[in-house]
Amino acid sequence: MKRNLVFVLLLTLFGTGASAQLKVGKLLKAGGNLISAVTLTDADIAEMSKSAVEKMDQENQVDTSDYHRRLQRLTENISVDGLKLNFKVYLTKDVNAFACGDGSVRVYSALMDTMSDSELMAIIGHEIGHVARTDTKDALKNAYLRSAAQNAAGSVSGSVAARLSESQLAELANSLAQAQYSQKQEYDADEYGFEFCLKNNVDPYAMYHALDKLADMSKTNRNNASAIVKAFATHPDSYKRAQRMKEKADALQH
Ligand SMILES: [Zn+2]
């Protein structure tokens, strides 16, 4: 059971919470100490990001059938400056999606079951927003600095990513995906998702509907919900986020 992987990924869309704190504590113990002067170039981070996604792709069941075709149909004409996007669907019961700095976007089948096409596009836009605003990159970098992975750096030759062991890579992948985003970062990613919808001829109310749906799910499924929904439920302002997006869409109607 890939409990860790699945669990932590769920926090990317709305995630903050105690779990991330625990994780950091665990990593600190494992790593022993914080490195204050690790040099990480953008190329290092990009490579680690790519390696982390490849690890996730190996760990998850990637759909090649209906989900894949639906996502392909939705995304075949979208482009984002500076990002070479690639999409995959993970077959899982968890409601989630995430994007990475290498342009990888991963969408969970249960999210696709839950969302309409336009809502799905809004969430994809939101996730790309975290990448565009470097939230994801910063999260990965911080995770790397905190993680035991840093102990592998320095003494061996080769790139930073190449020096990661399999288990360290898994830790990094987890840490990247469970990044704690601030409320401001979430608001900004919502804004990005909204604009993303406009650019791609998606219903301007899609971001509103998607957020509203997740807020509803967090209310009705509090006990057995996917972690994304639970994480969302811990935000008191869930509906406020949705409402902001509705107001933006309303403003376009005048
Ligand atoms: Zn988010």
Automatic annotation (TrEMBL):
Signal peptide as annotated in the record: 1-20
Keyword terms: Hydrolase, Metal-binding, Metalloprotease, Protease, Signal, Zinc
Cofactor(s) the record lists: Zn(2+)
GO MF, one annotated term: metallopeptidase activity
Segments forming domain Peptidase M48: 65-247
Annotated Pfam families: Peptidase_M48
Co-factor binding comment: Binds 1 zinc ion per subunit.
InterPro entries: Mito/Outer_Membr_Metalloprot (IPR051156), Peptidase_M48 (IPR001915)
Family affiliation: Belongs to the peptidase M48 family.
Protein name: M48 family metalloprotease
Record organism: Alistipes hominis
UniProt lineage: Bacteria, Pseudomonadati, Bacteroidota, Bacteroidia, Bacteroidales
